[in-house]
From TrEMBL:
Protein name: Cysteine protease
Lineage: superkingdom: Eukaryota
GO molecular function: cysteine-type endopeptidase activity; protein-phosphatidylethanolamide deconjugating activity
Species this protein is from: Liquidambar formosana (Formosan gum)
Subcellular localization, as worded in the UniProt entry: Cytoplasm
Purpose: Cysteine protease that plays a key role in autophagy by mediating both proteolytic activation and delipidation of ATG8 family proteins. The protease activity is required for proteolytic activation of ATG8 family proteins: cleaves the C-terminal amino acid of ATG8 proteins to reveal a C-terminal glycine. Exposure of the glycine at the C-terminus is essential for ATG8 proteins conjugation to phosphatidylethanolamine (PE) and insertion to membranes, which is necessary for autophagy. In addition to the protease activity, also mediates delipidation of PE-conjugated ATG8 proteins.
């Protein structure tokens, strides 16, 4: 069975629902009613089918000299099933029927700090492009950089894995968040993907940084290397906290390797954690003194303040998010500094970029695409695999309670504005803040576990250090495997 699974890694074929299949954006709802298990089922079924086809094709290659005609005919028949409607119907049975069409809600949509107003007349017209707000939202959504599973890259160290299918979704989700930070930093929040070539050089350079080889600064190869101290390993799933710490380590390593004028990640990285007694003990604290220190160290003493990336890993419940946190989670998307959320269903990470009412819009890394090598000088490169026109959403209260929120502050004024908004949000949280803000580590009594418990939910110790082996069929961490950091 182990060999069966390993062959599935090497030969996993792409999903029938390509991230760029629709010329106009469509909305897909959360697949099925059993949201806690559908993503895991999808992974298991897709891995099984891919592995089965892999074994069949290997067998065909070995016997082609003897049974060429019979095997080729059967292979062609199977491939027609895979590429045709039959396989799509299989996926729909496993994942749930895909629903298309834009929501009839007239509520505002917030996408990474930008509000899109939807009028009742436009929403009821039936034409998704008849409303200026919706059309602009679609263009903004499709301009966000998408990172998905890839196959065919160089093997990761000694693992012999040439694909991250079934285990790399958290790494890909984190790459998306950091990529948006670089887009905002280099090209501004108003940037939209180019319709014509040549494209922006800065845009191509950002994509190059996330290529799938050790030569690319922020490849999964280098992320895994940087995250070894936090348990990252090829073939295993990792949680948001370890992922954030791995980015901190990788950014520090690249800063040491490069000169000050040649930063790959041209911003300080600040992981917002618990109080002064450790990584836990209450709501994380954005310490202004710490942020200043990170900026000063990043500039090697040349500037008091620099652009800064804040990553806030959180655990907001046991099996589901405590309902008391839902309003605050949605409100973070109204911050101009918003970079979204690393989250999703248990064992299936996604990148959440926006909200409307109780819905969370996300980019899905669980598409399998061939590896793409984009040179930093190729302004004519095909970048279509890095964007998605299909707008998917899930209920905000159904996401995994272990998550991480990202923010990007361009300068001191931007950071001060963030702190003001965050403090106001904490004051309005009815005793359940996502995080708080303080000038120094001399803090009042932190919010305790009892303060944060809901009627049927509690705050668990972060299990994001635990590695979920691929042999776990459901992709869940077991309760007795949870570890304190």
């Amino acid at each position: 069975m182990k060999g069966f699974r390993e062959r599935g890694f090497a030969s996993r074929t792409s999903s029938t629902d390509s991230p760029n299949t629709s010329p106009a954006a469509s909305v897909c709802s959360d697949p099925g009613s059993n949201g806690e298990t559908n993503c895991s089922k999808a992974s298991s079924w897709s891995g099984f089918l891919a592995s089965a086809f892999s074994i069949f094709e290997t067998y065909s290659d070995q016997k082609r000299a003897v049974h060429s005609r019979n095997n080729n005919g059967w292979t062609a028949a199977v491939k027609r099933v895979v590429s045709g409607g039959s396989m799509r119907r299989i996926h729909e049975r496993v994942l749930g029927q895909t629903k298309t069409g834009l929501s009839s809600s007239t509520s505002d949509i917030w996408l990474l700090g930008v509000r899109y107003k939807i009028s009742p007349e436009d929403s009821s017209s039936g034409d998704p492009h008849s409303t200026h707000g919706l059309a602009e939202f679609e263009q903004d959504f499709s301009s966000r950089i998408l990172m998905t599973y890839r196959k065919g890259f160089d093997a990761i160290e000694d693992s012999k894995l040439t694909s991250d299918v079934n285990w790399g979704c958290m790494l890909r989700s984190s790459q998306m968040l950091v990529a948006q930070a670089l887009l905002f930093h280099r090209l501004g929040r108003s940037w939209r993907k180019p319709l014509n070539k040549p494209v922006d050089r800065q845009y191509i350079e950002i994509l190059h940084l996330f290529g799938d080889s050790e030569a690319s600064a922020f490849s999964i190869h280098n992320l895994l290397q940087a995250g070894k101290a936090y348990g990252l390993a090829a073939g295993s799933w990792v949680g948001p906290y370890a992922m954030c710490r791995s980015w901190e380590t990788l950014a520090r390593c690249k800063r040491v390797e490069n000169d000050l004028e040649d930063h790959s990640l041209s911003m300080a990285v600040y992981i917002v954690s618990g109080d002064e007694d450790g990584e836990r003990g209450g709501a994380p604290v954005v310490c202004i003194e710490d942020a200043y220190r990170h900026c000063f160290e990043f500039s090697k003493g040349q500037d008091d303040w620099t652009p800064i990336l804040l990553l806030v890993p959180l655990v907001l419940g046991l099996d589901k998010v405590n309902p008391r946190y839902i309003p605050s989670l949605g409100a973070t998307f109204t911050f101009p500094q918003s970079l979204g959320i690393l989250g999703g269903k248990p064992g299936a990470s996604t990148y959440i970029v926006g909200v409307q009412d109780e819905k969370a819009f996300y980019l899905d890394p669980h598409e399998v695409q061939p590896v793409v090598d984009i040179s930093r000088d190729n302004l004519e490169a095909d970048t279509s695999s890095y964007h998605c026109n299909v707008i998917r959403h899930i209920p905000l209260d159904s996401i995994d309670p272990s998550l991480a929120i990202g923010f990007y502050c361009r300068g001191k004024d931007d950071f001060d504005d963030f702190c003001s908004r965050a403090s106001k949000l904490a004051d309005q949280s009815d005793g359940a803040p996502l995080f708080t803000v303080a000038n120094t580590h001399e803090l009042p009594r932190p919010v305790t576990q009892n303060d944060m418990l809901g009627d049927d939910c509690g705050v668990r110790e972060d299990d994001s250090f635990d590695m979920v082996p691929m042999s776990d069929p459901e992709g869940y961490a077991h309760e007795d495997d949870w570890q304190l950091l």
